[in-house]
Write a structure and sequence with these properties.
The protein is an all-beta fold and 121 residues long. The protein has strands spanning 6-16, 22-28, 31-33, 37-39, 43-49, 54-61, 71-74, 80-85, 91-101, 107-109, 114-117.
Length: 121
């Protein structure tokens, strides 16, 4: 995996609501956020899972060949998902975080965060 400085570090929580549906929460630097990231230089975007009973499988992209995200890696314990973004291609890409849960063999997907590249300046 290409190494860049860690840019965004986003903590992810997953809780079940009254209807037993997963609800995703995101924080960055202790502040609530929508999980979106704006990139102005090449960086690693890190999603850190903070909820027990879940682990990252990866991320599913609506447009995987758009050149916005260059690489993806999941840590061995499944608690961290890293997206490598060289910021070489301007534009926006949407994706969903894909997690497995300890209760069954089904996957859980998030609402779609976005990465917006400003492009190298």
């Amino acid at each position: 995996m290409t190494s860049y400085v860690t840019g965004a570090l986003i903590e992810v929580t997953v809780q079940l609501n009254a209807a037993n549906e997963p609800v995703f929460g995101y924080t960055q630097n202790g502040e609530p956020t929508d999980g979106n990231v704006v990139v102005a230089v090449g960086q690693n975007i890190v999603y850190q899972l903070k909820s027990a009973g879940y682990s990252f499988v990866g991320a599913g992209f609506l447009t995987p060949n758009d050149g916005i995200i260059d690489e993806m890696e999941v840590s061995a314990d499944g608690n961290q998902l890293t997206l490598v973004d060289t910021d070489a291609t301007p534009g926006t890409t949407k994706f969903q975080l894909v997690l497995k849960n300890a209760q069954n063999s089904l996957f859980v997907i998030s609402p779609d965060p976005q990465v917006v590249n400003k492009g190298e300046e």
